[in-house]
TrEMBL record:
Residues 507-518 have a biased composition (Polar residues). This is GOST seven transmembrane domain-containing protein. The keyword Metal-binding does not apply. The chain crosses the membrane at residues 226-246, 258-275, 326-344, 364-384, 405-425, 440-462. The keyword Signal applies.
Amino acid sequence: MARVDPSIAAPGRLLRLLIYCGIFLLPFFFSSSVDASVHSYVGDKFAPKGNAFVLHGGSEGLYASFPDPNATAGPGDAFIRFEKITFRRPEQATENSKDTDNVMVQAIVFEVEDRETIGGSAYGGQRAVCCTADLAKLGACTQGTVIYRPSTQNPNWPQVLIATFSGKDLVATLPSHSIPITRTGMYNLYFIYCDPALSGLAIEGKTVWKNPTGYLPGRMAPLMNFYGLMSLAFVILGIFWFSQYVRFWKEVLPLQNCITLVIALGMLEMALWYFEYAEFNETGLRPMGITFWAVTFGTVKRTVSRLIILVVAMGYGVVRPTLGGLTSKVIMFGATFFLASEILELVENVGAVSDLAGKARLFLVLPVALLDAFFILWIFTSLSKTLDKLQARRLMAKLDIYRKFTNALGVALVLSVCWICYELYFKSTDIYNERWQNAWIIPAFWQVLSFSLLCVIADLWAPSQNSMRYAYSDDGTEDFDREDSLSLIKPGPIPSKDTRGSAASIAVTSNTTTSNNGDMEEDKRE
């Protein structure tokens, strides 16, 4: 039975593993609640915060659609709409209630610049959300209600809606209401109650957040146009690459097949993201299927791209015919990176959309960052060895292309480090997401950088009539690893009185000179 080369079977095993991972993760994430500009509340519980009980109802950047504060929200306007919001308290909470008792739950909407208008303190003491007896005595508020002051920048804000439990009622309803957005900003919604007698309160219903151009959150709205442009860029790259591929298909190398796969995956990813954002903008709900496959295609593309860069750095197909014992390690590392990246991207994109970063994402970023760092270290270590090998054999055409490849990776690495520093600065100095209008630039940069590096690789290894000159050729020399170790030992003169030994030495010298001349002639042809 014919033996299959591990380096050929490896991509098939990796593809099967990626498919199995996708099948395993698909039901888990599809079963989760997926909300977007439509924030649904299904039995959510309130959490104690100081002297209040608070539930975060959403946080999104919204653009103003009209200047008139008295206008009514219409189809093309920006608004926050409350729909069928009901509060349910447990029966035991009504045991000590009287028919004349009224207990309220308040929904308060405010722009992030007005956050200091929420809450207060008596005589400079600890800040409270709910009005205390001391503040009530000062006439600053009504005891048992949320403390807030009118905004100096935005008239009639914060907006407060009230649902009241009368007597022993178990259910209170918040009136359906639309709040028109007359000022561009980051808006926050909190449901708050102050009476501990409502302990165990649960909420049901939804709120709809809409921008003038659609339901996309403000920080995500520019990304729809961005992915449209990226789709066009990938189409142009694809036309260039596939035209060359068809013209010189007889000269195509395995490495060029892998680049073809990455370009095809990139085209699919960008198109899926564009349609995902377009659907999201139209309906206000993320299309789970499109989102999942956009994330998956993107993760597969990033994984394959890193593996291609790694095996190229190792000299696969150029200075060595196979990866040998490294094949299984490369596949295992790639599969680990895919799994970690897929989970991170799904948690970030397939779920409730909010402009507040979740702790789960921060926890999942760490393993992906560590794997990326290890990838970079492995790539540049392998590149250094490959450049030394090409220099030792004086294969100048291959050496030149590898130097350009190394320079491109070096520039990409420097830009990545600089951008990571900027991203850390951006997020650490923007705790309340006040710069939300520029937040889309951060994910867009990584897409542009990845695409630029792909263009460089596609240019360096574009199919041509001379493609085979960059391929590995078995010219009868020894294995590179063995050759490297032997090259460190310089042959010295061997004294011998045997004339036959001298003749043999002359013959060996003659053969060596002929071999070297042959290599030089090959380089000249290249």
